[in-house]
User: Fold this.
Amino acid sequence: MQIYVVQWGDNVDSIAETTGVSPSQIISDNQLIYPYELAVGQALLISDGERNPGRSVYVSGYAYPFISPWVLEQTLPYLSELPVFSYGFTYYGELVAPKWDDQWMIDAARQQGVMPILTLTPLGEDGRFNNNLISSVVNNPAYMENLIQNMLILMDEKGYQGVDIDFEYILAEDRNAFTDFVRRVADTMRANGYHTSVALAPKTSADQQGLLYAGKDYGALGEAADHVLLMTYEWGYTYGPPMAVAPINQVRRVVEYALTEIPAEKIDLGIPNYGYDWPLPYERGVTAARTINNIQAVRIAIEQGAEIQFDEVAQSPYFRYTDAQTQIEHEVWFEDVRSLQKKFDLMNEYSLRGCGYWQIMQWFRANWLLLEDNFYIIKENF
Assistant:
């Protein structure tokens, strides 16, 4: 495979002639929409159908139960694990099921050798992470045991093969109690033939302060769980200033710190499958970005006549445009095959266990083709 960056005067036919790949293949692999317009600076995946994967890795992708059945069907061949988002819990350790049926996802995953994973989150009724829920359960042995046993019963009933613990905003004073909770979950799951993972906020040092970081002990959690996911995204986020969602220079810092605490064979790299569109000028506390998918980002550039740029430090694509109707300037950051290849390179450089996508709700064919060209994807036999 190769990556071709669109230049002034290019069209699909001229690129096909230059690369020796059919126009229909370029259109399909890059999800181009008739009449197949291109943006200057757009990165296209050019594939001749040959694969040259290296080592084997685990790949996971979070999904809500309202995912399009078609998108899930298309994505499952590229996954090892499907974390279903998500199950909550009460202050006393009772499980709270998602609002939508998840059994169809579990069945679809198992049919394709993909491990369905119960994702456990402390989401309150308002849909936000609630650290009071965390405190209640991790500091009370009876509530903790109740939650663990409830998960075991549900996993056996539904066919889940593991649990992913995605707790955020853990209070600093609950740090050790949370680690003990993860250890207790993992020990119990292993004894019953299941595995346990834990999602980690992107720390760059052991003593990093802040509500996202202080409550997570990388070394202890890496030892307790079977594997971890580094949530290496959201540098650019809804209410923050415009910037890359997962700048490779920052991602590298997180990986290099994590490797001082956790073996590489236990680490999955988090990869975003989305971007943001910020109105300008940015004003903290006022400006809110719109979440967009990566195909949508390119469509905006085409419709607005914007040239896509590529930041060499962040190794991420971006562009600016002025909305013709509102006259408001916008800045867009997203992922393309160039930025994704840099993340795959990092996985290889440090021999990481694999990667995990937040999230797979939108189909991005070029990503999966590129992933498959880099790696063999591990599947399980049930």
In short: The chain has two domains: 1-50, 56-274+335-377.
